[in-house]
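Box S2. Input/output pair 1.
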Amino acid sequence: MKKTVISIGEILWDVFPEGKKAGGSSMNVALNLHKQGINSKLISAVGDDESGKELIRFLNDQHFESDLIQFNNLPTSTVEVKLDAQHQATYTIVEPVAWDAIELSEEAVAAVKDADALVYCSLTCRNEKSRNTISSLLKHAKLKIFDINLRSPFFTIETLKVLLAEADILKVNEHELVYLKHELALTGNTDEQLLKQLSHTFNINIICLTVGDKGAYVLQENRLYHHKGYQVKVEDTVGAGDAFLGTFIASYLKGYPIDTTLDRACKIGAFVASQPGANPDYGDEVFS
């Protein structure tokens, strides 16, 4: 039976020097799930403006259902993307925008109740309206997947503690792990020790740690798995972590073993990093 995953969070335009591309971590995860045969839906909001309508047309062109995306009076989100010499991205995120005010709707509650999993992130919790909506929806989720996705200055450790305590699966990168070590006074000296402390502190079943071109780790049931990653010529890193997470979720829900799931996630993350923008087209051939 086809699995269903609901993502809640950002949908936006990534604005590069050469032009704009559709993005947002939550939308990126949702689209990767969709490309991999998951019944994927996104709860979000765009402005009642041409930029918002253009994003909806983009999703429709991807054959992605947009019925859980709301329109409101705030502007559609845009993010200025700058790439350094190593093609690593930094972001300037406008505030407030439409996804800061996602309403709790009956349709959203029903979708989460029926779904196999809910994916959420910290950035969407920067303002009270969307934070309260996520809090309410988490009460109805069967499997809760937290993409911590720290974007300064839009987080506090107090909010992160609440969100971590809800998570069944956590995805974190190496820089975010350093932040958590400091703020939570974790005492581990290795990534494995830190992941185990996080798992025990917040009762998280699975933690994915991405470490850039050095691959990724997964901690499950106190066992650590490692993949060295795939070496590619990096075009930009925008959306690579989202592709990793979407692939990890899709493969996990399809019942692949954890080591195979990790390999598939690393493969798609590397592929997206080798392409411009967060959402290049691909099919099953990319796994071969």
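Box S3. Input/output pair 2.
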Amino acid sequence: MSHFPDNDLTCNDFLNGRVRLWQPRLGYRAGVDPVLLAASVPATRGHTVLELGCGAGAAILCLLARVPGLHGVGVELQASYAALARRNAAENAASFEVVEADLAALPADLKQRQFDHVIANPPYYRAGAHSAAADDGRAIALGEGTPLGVWFDTAAKRLAPSGYLHMIQKADRLPDMLAGCTGRLGSVEVLPLAARAGRAAELVILRAKKGGKAAFRLHAPLILHAGARHEKDGESYTPQVSAVLRDAAALPGLSGQ
């Protein structure tokens, strides 16, 4: 099936309605992670952005909504999600084109292009390292089919000189991410994301620069929720994180953010 029937979709607001996103009711659904990823990118008007594995387009559409005057390209393997991303691009009036392709085998014309920024939210789990998902789309989105090193190789090749890669991943994949940068990207920075103060980071955002020579930087964790534990219904995001999720603010914690 190349398209989701409308009755299998929901339309959800991101960034307080700046982005309206159609996504499958039962398949892979975007949460806060792509919004945080989009908020980490120091893009400015006129820049170009490539998202590898764009899904329905949550991350890149949030970035395009936050920074006017960007042009985005998304690469998506699954035909149904690529079609959904095109629909979301049109309904959000975004300068965003979608290429249905395997990121390990990009079309020839895309291989001729370079971008100021590449963003990626690869599958969080190594193949066989998580419980199987009943929905095929969710299974592909969550379970690694393409080795993480291929994501870095593709990103590095598509970045313009001095361009930046931003990637969000599980913290336990950080060694793989650093290995992926070796020989390809430099000036690596890592921002850990911790649910609450005193807790270990579950996610990290990595920034790396093509041709970068700066020393590695490990930043203090960004705390997502206020308080030592969840005590009541409703949201408990810190004011900084709430500003990112609701008001399209830049993500604090990385250099220049």
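Caption for Box S3: Residues 79-91 form the longest helix (13 residues). Confidence is low (pLDDT under 50) at residues 129-135, 137-143.
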